[in-house]
Amino acid sequence: MPVYEYKALDIKGKTTSGIVDAESPLIARQKLRASRTFPVSIKEVHETPAKKEPRSFLIFRYFKRVRPSEVSMMTRQLATIVGAGFPLVSAIDTLIPQTRSKAFKKILAKIKDSIVEGNSFARSLSLYPRTFSSLYVNMVQAGETSGTLEIVLERLADITENQQALKQRIHSALTYPVFMTFIGALVLFFLLTFIVPSITSIFTDMNQALPAPTLFLITISDLFKNYWWIILIVMTGILIALNGIKKTSKGRYLLDKNMLFWPGVGLLTKKLATARFARTLGSLLENGVSLLPALEIVKNIAGNKLIANLIENAAKEVEKGQALGLALAEGKIFPDLSIQMIRVGEQSGELEAMLNKIADVFENEVETSIMRMTSLLEPVMILVMGIIVGFIVLSICLPIFEMNQLIM
Fold first, then answer.
1. Rounded CA gap, 103 and 18, in Å?
2. Three-state DSSP string of 267-315
3. 344 to 72, 98, 289, 325, 352: CA distances (angstroms)
4. In whole angstroms, what is the distance from residue 124 CA to residue 135 CA?
């Protein structure tokens, strides 16, 4: 069924806009008038599910994308409505007007039309992979197959909300250090480019031998003053080169491998990947997805090429009859505690529950580690800034002290 975008006036004369699905523009106008909304303009949205989601410039794609928080809220509402006994199509139709994002409204309308045409809910969701992850689609498919869609939707809402809460806590912890680093870099750039040259020019005009720290400061200051644009070009080139390397398979593998073995950051990355792996795998197994397809899904959302390869190799070993814990232990990436807990879960027949416990343990460890790192990072940043500013002040004061001694 076609979908139309409209601009209209309500009974109070206020301008409103939205989308409506109807067989023709005439029927769309009739539906709007029946709801006491009077259309001013109406046009068909020609985007089709076959095209999946449009590719555009990165900045426009960022603003048009559907935020995970919107998907989480929709999932929670859909679980409540379906659990109350509403048919799936009617439930989605109820949610469309309540959705704020126009992009998400279009996606939900297309999903509803796809279901009406005879496709399953999971199949309709899979047409929008940038909005609905493979985890989401496969859990919905398992819920449709087992007849427990409302339970699966509740579980999905819990998973997405927990993931968003963890990300929000991590971002909140890192916001202040990142902000202070940015401000400190700007202050130093301003000092070296504008303030220091005006002061050190006095010393250069005196034709006097200057101390080594002062000469070093003058050299750095001249570099920033005369060649700041080269520095910006080099930094931009490095960022573009790193982005290009990440897009290649070999480059992404090397970057991900180095990330896992950096001091401090590597251990944190392993813990975060372990928590994501355990949470996703446990949720899939709890909702009826068998182990091998679940490992294939988890591999695709690992977020690290090395870990994805480890999971893929582990799946092959499991297919041959080896235990999951032993297969994962061969890669020597997952922490020993997680391997031991998986082996205990396999032996006791409670693998799903044990995976959820692993996720809880390592999510808490990640959050605690980040809080500890940020608490240490703040005084380190203050110390580094103090040393740099102290060096600048000392380099400026040394020639002045020497001149005072000559005068005396």
1. 11
2. HHHHHHHHHHHHHHHHHHHHCCCCHHHHHHHHHHCCCCHHHHHHHHHHH
3. 32, 46, 21, 9, 11
4. 14
Distance, in Å, from the CA atom of 143 to the CA atom of 156, rounded to the nearest integer, reads 11
Are 336 and 345 contacting, i.e. CB atoms less than 8 angstroms apart?
A: no
Residue 386 confidence (pLDDT) above 80: yes
**What integer best gives the mean pLDDT of the chain?**
80
- Prediction pTM value: 0.63
If you average pLDDT over residues 368-392, what whole number do you get?
84
**Length of the chain measured in residues:** 408
Residue 16 in this model has a pLDDT that exceeds 80? no
CATH class of 192-408: mainly alpha
What is the distance between the alpha carbons of residues 77 and 377, in angstroms, rounded to a whole number? 40
Angle between helical axes of 351-407 and 149-190 (0-180°, round to 10): 10
How does pLDDT run across 31-89, given as a tens digit for each residue? 777 777 777 677 776 544 444 444 444 444 444 578 888 888 888 888 888 888 888 88
- In a 13 Å sphere around the CA of 3, the CA atoms on its Cβ side amount to 21
